[in-house]
Design a protein that fits this description.
The complex is a heterodimer of chains A (318) and B (337). Chain A is an all-alpha fold and 318 residues long. In chain A, 77% of the residues lie in helices and 0% in strands. The relative contact order of chain A is 0.14. Classes of the chains: A mainly alpha (318), B mainly alpha (337).
Chain lengths: 318, 337
């Protein structure tokens, strides 16, 4: 176990290092993004730019610049080239909104994904199964940002069923918090509900042909018990794997959903920074997102072993 | 009894899948629709996708109407009221013909989807064959490289690359690509999705490598290249075809997302994604400008997905493919956003 944990941790750090180098490299091939010019602002003149270049070390060799950047990010000293705001502070400020969005969406998608998948597997071939399949495949095929725009226009602007405007903190008013987040949650969850219910359905159909299911039936268990305790439980293992991966990647989806619904979280910050070619926040946010993806990957491997006793830790890393 | 090839059997199964065929026909209709873009533009609308008509008037049932009124609001759908001109109305302040743009935009979206998916599948096949066949160090190296791409939030990676390349263009030796070229989103999307297809293919190669026919080929003196491309590749084809179809759906969705964010397709080119972005600015006054391109995109991706499902069932009736894809972490759809 300890050996596994250490190896896993070393792997995580190596991946995060590579990700940070890659982002840094991507943004240093852009000729038009001169950070010194950005920092100088409107009153830029060659002397000012030259002095900023020297002061901030933009003429240092690239590896040196990379190290400075990483040191600043990790110690919380990094500032935006565009606004000179502290980047880490902005990210921390955005955490409640983004996490509310992601966690709520995840709850919805896991609940409906499992419910729909279970119902279609139990009624495989029937009318309900077909209807749910249509819903699921449509969900997979829908462009998220388009759905967000449509829901916002028709339900919020036209019918005024939901409040418009930005995020309300949970501590301020739990009811308003939820009311403002319902549409973003649903939007973000739709694609995953479709995908998860399809995966669960096919896993359950495969599991139904297994010997242990026949055994469970033979010993006289009720159909419901066979389905929930034996078929569903075993089919959930791959779902958990997927969940870990997708939860990390949600931060990417949060970019458009936060943008359209005007939720002032990390996703919107990422979008602003991309438009402004502002390297420090992009580096920090990418690392932040990558950290969660890598972390969830590791957690999933552990959960996997817990759910499926046949998997031994240490062998799961393929 | 005659022997039947597996491809014939798959074809026969597909032929009986009415839903898949129906959506296949819908997809074909959409392809015809976008291919016919120049015909509609020249003979019906009489304008191009980028031609502006800001100050012009159009005759509707004998009465002249402004294409863009004084408040800057574009004319709504005229259907056949003006003989097919501005069939879906104008697209905004610039007064471009929405229908013409829809057809040309669809060309871009489908083109990027198909070419990017081809790149994904090509790279994934090569990497999967190398990793699965050689194993050991090469396998480890490829796996680590894919882990890095995997750890990126896909949208963020695509957007960062898109932004960097859209402003600067790409220059590798003799290969020069300008910032507004369609090849920039194509290459980005193709590369970003590669890990999701490589992993399941590698798994299949690992299993196939132990089979007798590979041993037979090796003992007859076949070199690695011959084994990989002559023996293993034909056995991977059905998986590759299915992944290609799924990838087209995903690449089209990612393209639209990047274009919506302004880091995908760049003007003067247009795609359904950029059209939704343009329409979104006018969503309260002219919602159809957002609804229509999005609905086309949804229909296209939906028909690709359903047809891909049919292909999968036809090529592998035991539906093993899906499970193998999941044994190796996620399927491409999993992290589409």
């Amino acid at each position: 176990m300890a050996h596994f944990a250490i190896r896993r941790l070393a792997g995580m750090i190596a991946v995060l290092f590579a990700v940070s180098v890659l982002v840094f490299a991507i943004f240093n091939v852009i000729p038009s993004a001169d950070p010194a010019r950005q920092l100088a602002g409107r009153s830029a003149n060659p002397q000012l730019i030259a002095s900023i270049t020297k002061e901030w070390g933009f003429d240092d060799p690239l590896p040196r610049q990379y190290l400075t950047m990483m040191e600043n990010i990790l110690t919380g000293k990094v500032v935006s080239y565009e606004t000179r705001e502290n980047v880490d502070e902005r990210i921390v400020e955005g955490i409640p909104a983004t996490f509310s969005l992601c966690i709520g969406a995840a709850v919805i998608w896991m609940f409906f994904g499992i419910l729909f998948g279970y119902l279609s597997a139990v009624r495989a071939g029937g009318l309900l199964d077909r209807a749910l399949t249509v819903v699921a495949v449509t969900g997979i095929s829908i462009p998220v940002f388009w759905l967000a725009a449509i829901l916002l226009n028709y339900l919020t602007y036209r019918l005024e069923l939901f409040p418009s405007g930005s995020y309300v903190p949970l501590t301020e008013s739990p009811l308003e918090w939820a009311n403002h987040l319902i549409l973003p949650w649903v939007t973000l969850a739709v694609i995953f509900v479709g995908f998860y219910s399809r995966v669960l359905r096919s896993n359950m159909l495969d599991a139904m042909n297994e010997d242990y299911v026949r055994t469970a039936r033979a010993k006289g268990l009720s159909e419901r018990r066979v389905m929930t305790r034996h078929v569903l439980r075993n089919s959930l293992v791959p779902i958990v794997t997927l969940f870990g991966l997708d939860f990390g990647a949600l931060l990417g989806g949060a970019i458009v959903v936060e943008g359209i619904f005007n939720i002032n979280g990390i996703g919107q910050y990422a979008y602003e920074s991309l438009i402004n070619l502002d390297l420090p926040p992009i580096m920090a946010i990418t690392l932040f997102g990558a950290f969660f993806i890598v972390l969830f990957n590791a957690l999933v491997d552990i959960a996997y072993a817990y759910l499926d006793p046949r998997v031994k830790l240490g062998e799961t890393a393929q | 009894m005659d022997g039947r090839s597996p491809w014939y059997l798959a074809y026969r199964r597909l032929r009986h899948n009415r839903v898949a065929l129906g959506f296949g026909a819908l997809l074909a209709a959409i392809v015809v629709f976008v291919v016919a873009a120049p015909l509609w533009a020249d003979h019906v609308a009489g304008t191009g996708p980028n031609a502006t008509h800001t100050t012009e008037r159009v005759e509707v049932d004998g009465e002249p109407r402004e294409v863009v009124n004084r408040e800057g609001e574009p004319v709504g759908p005229l259907w056949l009221g003006a003989g097919g001109k501005f069939f879906l109305g104008a697209d905004g302040r610039l007064g471009r013909d929405e229908m013409v743009r829809l057809m040309y935009g669809g060309r871009t979206s489908l083109f990027i989807g198909v070419v990017a998916a081809s790149i994904t599948v090509l790279l994934a096949t090569i990497l999967g064959l190398l990793a699965g066949y050689y194993g050991g160090r090469i396998d480890g190296l490829i796996a680590r490289a894919l882990d890095v791409v995997w750890a990126f939030p896909v949208t963020l990676l695509g957007a960062a690359l898109g932004l960097a390349l859209a402003t600067g263009g790409l220059g590798i030796g003799p290969l020069q690509i300008s910032g507004e070229s369609l090849w920039i989103p194509i290459l980005i999307i193709g590369v970003v999705y590669t890990p999701y297809v490589t992993r399941p293919l590698r798994g299949q190669v690992l299993a196939l490598r132990e089979k007798e026919f590979v041993e037979a080929a090796v003992s007859q003196g076949s070199g690695p290249l011959r084994v990989m491309f002559g023996e293993l590749l034909p056995n991977l084809l059905s998986t590759i075809i299915v992944f290609f179809a799924i990838s087209v759906a995903n690449t089209m969705l990612l393209e639209s997302m990047l274009s919506f964010l302004g880091v995908g397709v760049q003007p003067p080119n247009t795609s359904w994604g950029t059209m939704i972005a343009d329409g979104f600015e006018l969503i309260t006054s002219a919602p159809l400008l957002t609804v229509i391109p999005g609905a086309m995109l949804l229909l296209t991706v939906l028909s690709v997905n359903v047809f891909a499902d049919g292909l999968r069932d036809a090529l592998d009736p035991r539906a093993k493919l899906r499970l193998e894809a999941h044994a190796g972490k996620a399927e491409p759809e999993g992290t589409a956003i």
